[in-house]
Amino acid sequence: MTQISHLDRRGFLAASLLALAVPACAQAAPDAYAASPFRKITDAQWKQRLAGPSYAVLRHEDTERPGSSPLDQEKRRGTFVCAGCELPLFKSEWKFESGTGWPSFYTAIKGAVGKKTDFKIGVPRTEYHCARCEGHQGHIFNDGPRPTGLRYCNNGVALKFVPA
After folding, report:
1. Does residue 43 contact residue 131 with C-beta atoms inside 8 Å?
2. Which residues are within 8 A (CB) of 98 and not within 5 positions of it... i.e. 6 or more apart?
3. 114, 119, 110, 105: which is closest to 151 by C-alpha?
4. N or C: which end of the chain has fewer CB within 10 A?
5. Is 129 exposed, middle or buried (0-12, 13-18, 19+ CB in 10 A)?
6. Quick check: is 85 catalytic?
7. Within a 10 A sphere around the Cβ of 153, how many other Cβ atoms?
8. What are the b/e assignments for 54-93, b being 16+ CB within 10 Å?
9. Single pTM value for the model
10. Cβ–Cβ < 8 Å for 53, 70
11. Which among 36, 46, 55, 74 has a CA at the least distance from the CA of 136?
12. Are 28 and 115 in contact (CB under 8 A)?
């Protein structure tokens, strides 16, 4: 009887670990840009390629002053691309006036951004970055408009606008 209890406990533990591992594996998506040449660029090379404020934001997760980006007022049709590698990130029709002083969007182009949890201010926030060059773009908040209810709050110096 002791042997059966021991096997049951062992089986229970194994099943518990498997139950925890399966959802984690199912959520892990392959990295479509893992072999990107942009990921091989050194910090010194990025510093040469990017203007000071863009370099500080994209490569060192800095934040530009609110209201300082002309892209916050951009109203034309087109696409907002990463200032580091020009990967399209947002369509202009997804942009909205958030009143925050930064360009804001309610969704991103599928597969264009990666996300991670950021604790820099002591509380967890969702940071997002360009999926191809891993340049920091901004943070995602749950106070955006329909249909997603999200606000992708982007640093303007991390973007370039390409008119349609």
Report:
1. no
2. 104, 144, 151, 153
3. 105
4. N
5. buried
6. no
7. 23
8. bbbbbbebbbbeeeebebbebeeebbbbbbbbebebbbbe
9. 0.81
10. no
11. 55
12. no
User: Hey, what amino acid is at 81?
Assistant: V
Q: How far is residue 130's CA from residue 113's CA, in Å, rounded to a whole number?
A: 5
Q: Beta partners for 125?
A: 118
Q: Give tens-digit pLDDT for 82-140.
A: 999 999 999 999 999 999 999 999 999 999 999 999 999 999 999 999 999 999 999 99
SS3 39: helix
CA 106 distance to own-chain centroid: 13
- CA distance to 58, 81, 145, per residue, from 31 (Å): 19, 19, 29
Which of 85, 130, 133, 153 does the annotation list as catalytic? 153
